Amino acid sequence: MKHVDFVHLHLHTQYSLLDGTIRLADLFKKARDYKMPAVAITDHGNMYGAVDFYQQAYKAGIKPIIGCELYVAPKSRFDKTSEGPGETARHLIVLVKNLQGYRNLIKLTSKGFLEGFYYRPRIDKELLAEHSEGLIATSACLHGEVADWILKGDLERAKATASQYRDIFGEGNFYLEMMENGLPEQSLVNEKLMEFSKELSIPLVATNDCHYLARTDSEAHEVLLCIQTGKTMDDAGRMRFTTDAFYLKSPDEMKQLFSYCPEAIENTVAIAEKCNLKLDFTQVFLPHFEIGQGRSLDEHLREMAKEGLERLLPKILQGKDPSLREKYEKRLERELDIIKSMGFAGYFLIVSDFINYAKSRNIPVGPGRGSAAGSLAAYAIGITEIDPIRYGLFFERFLNPDRKSMPDIDTDFCMEGRDEVIRYVSDKYGTDRVAQIITFGKMQAKAVIRDVGRALNMPYGEVDRIAKLVPNVLNITLDDAIKQEPRLQEEQKKNDKIRRLLALSRSLEGLNRHSSTHAAGVVISDKPLVERVPLCKSPNDDVVTQFSMNDLSA
């Protein structure tokens, strides 16, 4: 690998909802163009994108550094009294070195949502001290605590804070973070940080707090912030970045900007070399299914399936050749052997348990769909109501020993009984082991035009008219809409305002707009969930996972 001597360690992707515009695929393409060996993800207060980022980075041949820009409460995370969001939390960047650090970051971000939430997910120094192992921290932007005291003119407190963070994370794991973003306050902070670095022997590191990919995206990012804060571009007091420097700068640009402090650049590579998280996507974690002493799950499943088949056979064989019985018994044996060899007995028992619970409570359950209908064992234990032999369905389509993947049994519950089934599962496996799953609403073609139009303060009627020209096609992109609809091309040609509306809409299209609870997903874990995945709260106060469905199954 060509020697590149700079790594971006402070970067917001589109998982910093309505604040980052960086899409992962574009990020890795650009990082490859710049020949960057590694890059970090540090979204605001969450790990929503961690798995997605990790897997895409490896595909692109770039080392992923998982991190987060945490919000640290000034006192305790439980203390929810203060002036407003600005005063309730200071920023702090943490980066994961290894599996222990990853587990700690999961706990930190989860507690930020579940215990410290006040305007934002917040943690406190007490939690940091408990969960600092395996993490590297940097002092973050002007909203970080060290910079904040410097700007308030209290240099003693700024120094004390820097020393306190060094003590929490341990020698060599805390860095003073400098940026060159064209802000006059930042120059003042940098000057002091360089003095502190000498005095306290805490190393410096250079970052760029990237929120968008290219300098030209800065206007689209401003519009995004307006959508987030409900303001328009004409509001004088809106939240904004005063320079257009928050983009993914090239290593050469960064080196030029910091030519006066080369060690801050070198330290980015030193940190990247310390961050070596390996995630294993091959293991399967199943919740523990309780059965009586002295029996294995396989024996229990075998017994249930055989008894179930005995009950079904009289109905199946009615008026047919009795020698057919042997065909059913053989098929069941073969399926049970495969289930045993793949270690999925527990999975079948868990699914049949909650389906049979629903049936016992007269909650309507679908007869089974998808490849699970090919399983005689599933039919025998009441998971499906379809006889696979009668309809010539193959078990191998559902479970194949050559392809080690989780069985996938889709279950349809009546809407009205669904919550009761979730409650039953929570009570059975423990409320700390069951959660619903997050999903991200994206800014789709019509909606993004309306959002951007509002932010640009354009008349509602005009924006509405343009949005309605987008053809009603599921998941249509704006590019396709403009190709397919001559009136959109016409509007774009003759009207500058509409050209700008569509251009900005295109650059924000497809970004995550908000999070909500997945309508159908529930996850059950073998250990308290927070030991496996990060958690957060949904807008209606359910505990949900921070990873969306595909990342969760990975």
Describe the structure.
- It contains 22 helices and eleven strands.
- The radius of gyration is 28 Å and the shape is globular.
- Helix 2 (50-59) links the parallel strand 1 (38-44) and strand 2 (63-72).
- The strands form two sheets. Strands 1, 2, 3, 4, 5, 6 and 7 form a seven-stranded mixed beta sheet that branches. Strands 9-8-11-10 form a four-stranded mixed beta sheet.
- The model has no long low-confidence stretch (mean pLDDT 88).
- It is an alpha/beta fold and 554 residues long.
- Helix 9 (218-229) crosses helix 17 and helix 20 packs across helix 21 (496-508).
List the helices and strands and how they pair.
Layout: H1 24-33, E1 38-44, H2 50-59, E2 63-72, H3 85-88, E3 90-96, H4 99-114, E4 122-123, H5 125-130, E5 135-138, H6 145-151, H7 155-169, E6 174-179, H8 184-200, E7 204-207, H9 218-229, H10 251-257, H11 262-274, H12 297-317, H13 324-342, H14 345-360, H15 376-380, H16 415-429, E8 434-442, H17 445-455, H18 460-469, H19 478-484, H20 486-494, H21 496-508, E9 512-524, E10 535-537, E11 543-548, H22 549-553
Parallel strand pairs: 1-2, 2-4, 5-6, 6-7, 8-11
Antiparallel strand pairs: 2-3, 3-5, 8-9, 10-11
